[in-house]
Amino acid sequence: MHSVVSVEEKLPVVVGVDDVPDGLQIVDIAATEAARVGVPLRIVHAWPGRHGGMPRHRALRPDPADGRHLLDLASLRARRVAPGVTVRTELADDSAAEALIRHSGRAGLLVLRHRDESTLGHGWGSTAAYVAHHSHCPLLVFRGATGGQGPVVVATSGRPTATVGSAFEAASRAGCPLAAAHVWTTGSGDDDTERRSAEERMRRTLARAARTWPDVIVNRLLLSDADVPYTVERASRRGRLLVAGRGHKGWLVEMLYHIGRSSPSERRLCPVLLIPPGWSGVGLPRATVAGTSWF
């Protein structure tokens, strides 16, 4: 099965790694994406010695050599997954969030894993949550593989944006349906008129993209604003990829990272692809090389 995330041509894929158990699995995803579109891969790790708070006991203090060793392991793993990809590493001296945001300014895709921090009340972790609001390029937050089930889900704004195009391309590559949701606001006047207007905006937006990806089966869903939280959580549990624009206010991002982590008896939450405001998507390659499926 094809991989599904579009990457801006010639710009590298950037992946942030940490030293938690299974933390290097995210490298497989990033390397797969870099190989699919023929761009370099940059692996970034932030050394916690400057920003993480130094333990008093010398034996517990983080050593930069540990960070370099982690990057060496990540580089070897990436080259094993994608032998033809140019891999570079960086041991950042600034905080993880600052380093990743800095790299996002010259990247086509930024890839992070979620890191559960129960004290924050969400399952993304402080770094991913902060980067989600400030990344300059599309951000993929990996919350677990979904086993190749369910549709790609996109939240549409009613305008032709890179978000809709990214979702259509993802569904086309995965060979699955696209579920497109659009929200209309109740209580702002004539609800019937507002609903019809919202439906027409969604129809026009999807029709434009459908001309480029005619193979994608689209299921449209028009929501009232009161239905959004339930729908977002359901899409996170039943979809294979959730695509959304970050928006200038970021309220949808906050809703996404406050969705509770799946329990062992539930299906994992699907990956999220967030598109920043103003991302043009110009020059997105139409690569046809099959890659390892990670979702």
Provide a quick synopsis of the model.
36% of the residues lie in helices and 18% in strands. With 295 residues, it is of the alpha/beta class.
Which features would summarize this protein structure in a list?
295 residues; alpha/beta; Rossmann fold; 10-stranded mixed beta sheet; 36% helix; 18% strand; elongated
Describe this structure as you would to a colleague.
- Helix content is 36%, strand content 18%.
- By secondary structure, it is α/β, with parallel strands linked by helices.
- The protein has one domain: Rossmann fold (3-Layer(aba) Sandwich), CATH 3.40.50.12370.
- Helix 5 links the parallel strand 4 and strand 5.
- Helix 1 (25-37) packs across helix 3 (64-81) and helix 4 runs parallel beside helix 5.
- C-alpha end-to-end distance: 10 Å
- Could you tell me the CATH topology label: Rossmann fold
Q: For this structure, what is the CATH class?
A: Alpha Beta
Q: How many helix segments?
A: 9
Strand order of the largest sheet: 3-2-1-4-5-10-9-6-7-8
The CATH architecture category equals 3-Layer(aba) Sandwich
Structural class: alpha/beta
InterPro entries: Rossmann-like_a/b/a_fold, UspA
Protein name: Nucleotide-binding universal stress UspA family protein
Pfam families: Usp
Domain UspA: 13-143
